[in-house]
Amino acid sequence: MKTDSPAEIADPGTFNPPFFLKSPTLQSMLASAKLRLPRHSQLIKYSKERILTVTGGVRIQGFYSPQPDSGKKGLAILLHGWEGSVNSTYIRCTGEALFQKHFNVFRLNFRDHGDTHHLNHDPFRSDRLNEVFEAIDQMAAQHSGQPVFLAGFSLGGNFALRVARKCVETPIQNLKLVVGISPLMDPAKSTEVIDRIPWMRRYFLKKWFRSMDKKEKAFPDDFDFSEAKSLPSCMAITELLIKEQSPYPNVTEYFNTYTLKPDFFDKLTVPVLIIAAKDDPAIPVEDILALRENPLLYRSVTGHGGHCGFIENIKLESWLNHRLPALFDPKEEKRES
């Protein structure tokens, strides 16, 4: 991706699903549906676990899929959403599409996501940007002769966008483009929205409780989430855990650490593209449209797509699976046209 070609970033293509896929609820559910997983995955065949040690001895797990031919197109780093993992369907499908287009792919697990609860004692919080940034920086340094691209979904999109902003002070020299897909903008708003949508609240609570079980098993003498697991909403649990396990006096101050306000991108040194849908049930698109202009900030807002879905056909393939390779390598766009 050439940073002097803003049109190629600003217009990643048109997404217009058939009528039977226009439901934002269906789109959001299909994003994580296991039936979409590729049957014969080259991404997984070449996948190798990496444990990256960052400041404070924190260990971050990822899975690296190098190209057999050395992957001259560069490295694509993917970040999952809250309570997702490197094996979330949207990550696996996107990673597979990028790997098939000859990118090396690195899928990173946040602390306490996937099966990483035993790696670090202190629990995951969304303010822990530095450890994610350092892990990305390490992988980029290992590909110093190649371009690096970063894409994150939902909370992973929020992390990716914060990585782009942090590059102003701490550059990652070969990071060429950052893409936030359905990125979390205002955690207070989104948590309230999730709690108001029964299926979404149940989905996240089930995954969160499972994660708590893993943490208790890894550190049985230090963690007891029985009170948290008795609470009925994501907001109530967050309020309890922030009070008991964080340095923040209240949940508002915690949420402020990763809220992306309108002036967040006033300074940028790497191109940023936000891909979002107007009908996203979890992320109010108004917060994306309210971001102040910057020559390196681009937005592509579609009418449909739900939350991280963008499913475009009866085969349940995502529009992102060919749009991201084309964004990372404009030659792909020309080959398709």
Descriptive overview:
By secondary structure, the chain is of the alpha/beta class. The protein folds into two domains: 6-185 and 260-336, Alpha/Beta hydrolase fold, catalytic domain (Rossmann fold, 3-Layer(aba) Sandwich); 188-258, no CATH class. Helices cover 37% and strands 14% of the residues. An eight-stranded mixed β-sheet has the order 1-2-4-3-5-6-7-8, sandwiched between helices. Helix 4 links the parallel strand 3 (75-79) and strand 4 (104-108). Residues 1-10 have low confidence and may be disordered.
Mean pLDDT value: 94
What gross morphology would you assign? globular
| Portion of residues within helices | 25-40%
E-strand count: 8
Instruction: List the secondary-structure elements in sequence, H or E.
Output: HHHEEEHEHEHEHHHHEHEHH
Distance between the termini: 17 Å
Number of alpha- plus pi-helical segments:
13
- Strand content range: 5-15%
CATH topology name of the largest domain: Rossmann fold
User: What's the architecture of the largest domain, going by CATH?
Assistant: 3-Layer(aba) Sandwich
Q: According to CATH, what is the class of the largest domain? A: Alpha Beta
Integer tally of domains: 2
How are the SSEs ordered, and which strands pair?
Layout: H1 6-10, H2 24-31, H3 42-45, E1 48-53, E2 59-65, E3 75-79, H4 89-100, E4 104-108, H5 129-141, E5 148-153, H6 155-166, E6 175-181, H7 187-196, H8 198-218, H9 234-245, H10 251-256, E7 272-277, H11 285-289, E8 297-302, H12 320-328, H13 330-336
Parallel strand pairs: 3-4, 3-5, 5-6, 6-7, 7-8
Antiparallel strand pairs: 1-2, 2-4
Helix pairs in contact: 4-12, 12-13
